[in-house]
Amino acid sequence: MWTTRIRPSSLTPSNTHPEVPGAAQSAYSRSENQAAILALGLSRATHLRGVPQLIDGFDGFVFVTPEYNHSTTGVLKNAIDYLYAEWNNKAAGFVGYGVVGAARAVEHLRLIAAELQLATVRSQVALSFYTDFENFTTLTPGAHQFDALSATLDQVVAWSDALAVLRK
Ligand SMILES: Cc1cc2nc3c(=O)[nH]c(=O)nc-3n(C[C@H](O)[C@H](O)[C@H](O)COP(=O)(O)O)c2cc1C
Q: What is the sign, positive or negative, of the torsion defined by CA atoms of 121, 126, 132, 137?
């Protein structure tokens, strides 16, 4: 993927937090979160097996999103909603693609992240269908987009590190 080519080391899982980082400090504990999920009639479906552990293993995230009706996709929102403690006290950045770089979708994701106690960094990548894609399909990002991605990744790593004290 484009992002991992630029900064692979910052996107690899860490083994330093094997068990629910941040659960002790979070508003919801893992069991409270599971209780809330059960109360809503949802369950951790079998196709999600391993996903909580996968998200646990990362200290920061870069969400890549298109834009549908000025928001992110229902699929991404649904995936985010299945977890809670696993997102807490970590950092996130965004890469959006759309008519205006999925800017409105990213703003919605920032609101969602606030509820998840997931700190979102200022820098973001806004890929335009008009200027960063050939024929609206093949990714051909402008040079400035590499700088934007680099700045985003730097901020995600810095904030993930700074929040480590809350994940103990
Ligand atoms: C129902 C619908 C709503 C859309 N709304 C937006 C929008 O608000 N902003 C935008 O930039 N693109 C919008 N698009 C275009 C999609 O973002 C575009 O098709 C994109 O390629 C979807 O990415 P994906 O194929 O990776 O899901 C919309 C497309 C559909 C079908």
A: positive
**Cβ neighbourhood burial of 7 (10 Å; 0-12, 13-18, 19+):** middle
135: CB partners within 8 A, 6+ apart: none
30-80 pLDDT per residue, tens: 455 554 444 444 455 566 778 999 999 999 999 999 999 999 999 999 999
Residue 133 predicted with pLDDT over 80: yes
| Cα 13 to Cα 55: distance, rounded to the nearest angstrom | 9
User: Is any atom of ligand 1 closer than 6 Å to the C-beta of 101?
Assistant: no
- All domains in the chain, ordered by first residue: 16-161 (3.40.50.360)
Q: How far is the CA of 59 from the centre of ligand 1 (A)?
A: 30
- pTM comes to 0.80
